[in-house]
Structures are given as structure tokens and as C-alpha cells.
Amino acid sequence: MYTNVKAMTTCSRLGEFSGDIASTLAGFCGHSPWLALGALVSSDHKRQNQMDMQAKGFEQGSNVLLTLHSPRQKFFGVLMQFASAGVELRGVPVESLDDLARQIRAGERAGPSTLFFPMHRVERMELDEAVGDLPSLADGFAAKSGRTVAEVFGTDDNKEIGQ
Question: In angstroms, rounded to a whole number, what is the distance separating the alpha carbons of residues 58 and 82?
Fold first, then answer.
């Protein structure tokens, strides 16, 4: 029924299930049955949300727009890893994207950085997609730089792009 055992790992008597799971958990953990059961449901819900996000396109290599808080910042880049600890992104601040495109077009040595943001700073993450007649950030970057996001932000080599 509930597969997550993390809520019970701090309990001293892990193992003997009998009868109602909520009262059993309360006996193990010393909390109210509803609090113990809520910890399991909450954890399962978080895991399901993470799987749903991956199924909807938040996969490694996706172009994303990441909004952070404290301080408020926006980054565009290629998603390298999405985990409960945070988001790893190969990208640049959104306000620097046009400058990077101009530098690439001019043949200057420039490129994105590999960044990690802890989950407590992540406010929102969006897939970079065209909406109607509005191009995606990746399409706009390709038009301005003459190179695709995959070429410039690619993770195959960590050297700067240019020349």
C-alpha cells in the first residue's frame, strides 16, 4: 500500500506491522496516527509529482526557463539534472542571452556555465516552447547567433564556444 519507509527509519522498532497501519506507525514513531500517515502520503505525493514532471517533458537535455527567488533571478539553459536536492542547469541569466548570442555570432569565445540551484530557491521551471507565433527562447537564440542551443549549450565538451 505505502512503499515509502523513510518516515519510519528514525523509529526505534521498525518491522512488525499488524492491524491498522496508522496506529502501527503511531506506535513506532510516537506521533499521532494522522501525522505518521500524513508523512507517508506526503512523501509518496512528492515522488509522484516528480515522476509526472519527467513524463511531461522535464527530462535531461530539455531547454528550460528557471525562475528563482531570494534574490529573484531567471536563467535559461539545458536541464542537466532535476532532483529533490535541486536543479543542475547548463545556462546563462536570461538578461545575458542576447549578449551571448551576439558574442557567438561575432566569433568571440563565450559559453554558458554549469550551475546548481538548491530546491528551496526554485520558484518555477518552464519548458522553453514556442507559443503560437511567439518563438521559443531557443529559436530566438538560434536566429541571433547562427548556432543552435544544442551546439552552444551542449554538455559534450565544457570548453568555451567560438573561433
Answer: 8
Q: Tell me what pLDDT residue 132 has.
A: 92
For 99, other C-beta atoms within 10 Å of its C-beta total: 12
Nine cell digits for residue 158: 565544457
- Residue 10: what pLDDT? 40
Rg of the Cα trace of the chain?
22
**Half-sphere exposure (Cβ direction) of 72: Cα atoms closer than 13 Å:** 0
CATH topology of domain 63-153: SH3 type barrels. (2.30.30)
Give average pLDDT by consecutive 10-residue segment, the chain, 163 residues.
Answer: 41 45 50 49 54 66 95 96 95 97 95 96 96 95 96 67 43
Where do runs of H (alpha helix) occur along 61-148?
97-105, 137-145
In the chain, ranges of CATH 2.30.30 domains = 63-153
3-state secondary structure of 19: coil
Give the integer Cα–Cα distance in Å for 99 and 153.
15
In the chain, alpha helices (H): 21-29, 33-55, 97-105, 137-145, 149-153
Whether the full predicted model's pTM is greater than 0.85, yes or no, is no
